[in-house]
Design a protein that fits this description.
Elements lengths: L1 H24 L6 H7 L2 H15 E2 L2 E2 L6 H16 L2 H19 L1
Antiparallel strand pairs: 1-2
Amino acid sequence: MLWLIILAAGVGTYAIRLSFIALFGLFDEVPERVEQALRFVPAAVLSALVVPQLLYTDGAVSLSLDNVRLFAGALAALVAWRTEDILATLVVGMGAMWLLSFVLA
């Protein structure tokens, strides 16, 4: 049963990707409105992956002062916004998380 699920997921993923390739193969160029919409996809995917990790602790929303990830993530977001430097964002975010985990533990 597990292999059937893996196979179905693989075929489904392939079909979705192939459908877009075939669809846009019919056009000479991608419509402008579609290009504008596709520019937001990376930010949406990143947000969908990161935000739950920052807000949820033990399966419940945690907006309390003991949520180390939320504070470190907010600080990293501020650094990313101000500096636009990936390395600085990673260093500050991870440093803040480790420091806060050490202080609060």
